[in-house]
């Protein structure tokens, strides 16, 4: 799997006009960078409680389906990423009220060793059943989105096109 390209000029790049530049990456990579989709989806992304999570995940899933109807893979993938992020963030807050999993932020570590040490200092669990329910709601929508047949086909097509762009010839 190709890594997400963080070197692009996200402030000036419109991925609806340049879908060939989009890289899926892993998990939620780029979810808060890829425009205009971030600005379209982010206002609907909420997980404070199960009622809000249900409304939010339903709206984002409907946006996902609309992007699919338009054969807009980048939009569909971004909606899928927001659903996934709804799950992971609400799960994080379900486990840790502060939203912080580690005592120190491993991403701000000065070395690989310091990052490894920071990742070993996990804060104790403080389970919030309300956020856990929100996580379940988002997870169900995320799983439905990522297993959608049309989404899977568009994902395959996008990866094949990226492979052709890189090699200049169709990959078998």
UniProtKB/TrEMBL annotation:
Transmembrane segments: none annotated. Pfam families: DUF4385 (PF14328). Residues 94-103 have a biased composition (Basic residues). InterPro entries: DUF4385 (IPR025494). Residues 157-172 have a biased composition (Basic and acidic residues). Residues 94-115, 149-172 are annotated as: Disordered. This is DUF4385 domain-containing protein.
């Amino acid at each position: 799997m190709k890594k997400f390209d963080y070197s692009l000029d996200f402030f000036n790049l419109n991925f609806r006009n340049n879908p060939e530049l989009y890289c899926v990456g892993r998990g939620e990579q780029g979810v808060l960078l890829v425009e205009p989709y971030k600005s379209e989806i982010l206002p609907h992304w909420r997980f404070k409680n199960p009622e809000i999570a249900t409304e939010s995940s339903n709206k984002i899933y409907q946006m996902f389906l609309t992007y699919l109807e338009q054969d807009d893979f980048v939009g569909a993938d971004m909606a899928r990423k927001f659903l996934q992020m709804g799950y992971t963030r609400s799960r994080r807050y379900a486990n840790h009220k502060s939203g912080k999993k580690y005592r120190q932020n491993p991403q701000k570590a000065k070395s690989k060793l310091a990052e490894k040490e920071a990742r070993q200092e996990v804060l104790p669990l403080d389970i919030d059943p309300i956020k856990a329910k929100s996580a379940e709601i988002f997870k169900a929508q995320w799983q439905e989105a990522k297993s959608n047949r049309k989404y899977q086909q568009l994902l395959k097509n996008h990866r094949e096109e990226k492979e052709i762009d890189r090699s200049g010839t169709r990959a078998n």
